[in-house]
Specification:
The structure is a single chain. By secondary structure, the chain is α/β, with parallel strands linked by helices. The chain contains five helices and five strands, in the order H-E-E-H-E-H-E-H-E-H. The protein starts with 13 loop residues before the first helix and ends in an 18-residue tail after the last helix.
């Protein structure tokens, strides 16, 4: 679904995000996105929302998106230039289920820490379903980051796609930006 005055979101799939995939172009057709080949998760426009994420409501600008398709793997928090998976869910959600290598930047404290995020490597932003991460992605793009994608479908799509996850207590340093 698209909303008047909001551009369609460029898309990438969760499996591509897991494998460190690159940016896809905007659909530009007003459909709000596409479904990746072999995907059971439609990718598309991010949602707007109340400004309950500390001023991070997705309101304008093209937002990159990541959803479910070809090429499985994990996203590593190390490696200059390799995409960094940024999880914007709250800590309790992260403990329940998370992608290996993801760094935790909850929306509730995001505005206090966003400047720690690298500007010299791609960022793939994920939440539970894609709404909070769309807001954060749009905010980062409006504030100087240039290579940021939203993972559509979020961890729900990640788990549904059968990608590697971790559950339970965090290992020392897990979720931290190295």
């Amino acid at each position: 679904m698209t909303f008047p005055g909001r551009p369609a979101l460029p898309t990438i799939d969760v499996r591509e995000a897991a494998a460190g995939g690159g940016r896809r172009g905007s659909t530009g057709d007003g459909s709000g996105g596409t479904a990746a080949a072999g995907s059971d998760v439609a990718v598309g426009a991010g949602s707007s929302g109340a400004d309950s994420n500390g001023g991070l409501a997705a309101t304008a600008g093209a937002v990159g998106v990541v959803g479910a398709g070809a090429g499985a793997g994990t996203v590593s928090a190390d490696g200059a230039g390799a995409p960094l998976l940024v999880d914007v869910r709250e800590r309790s959600e992260f403990i329940q289920v998370r992608a290996p290598g993801a760094v935790l930047y909850p929306t509730s404290s995001f505005l206090l820490r966003f400047e720690e995020l690298p500007r010299d490597r791609p960022l793939h932003v994920i939440c539970n379903s894609g709404s909070r991460s769309a807001a954060v992605t749009a905010w980062l793009l409006r504030n100087g980051w240039t290579d940021v994608l939203n993972v559509t479908g979020g961890m729900v799509a990640w788990v549904r796609a059968g990608l590697e996850t971790r559950r339970g207590p965090l290992a020392p340093g897990e979720g931290d930006l190295a």
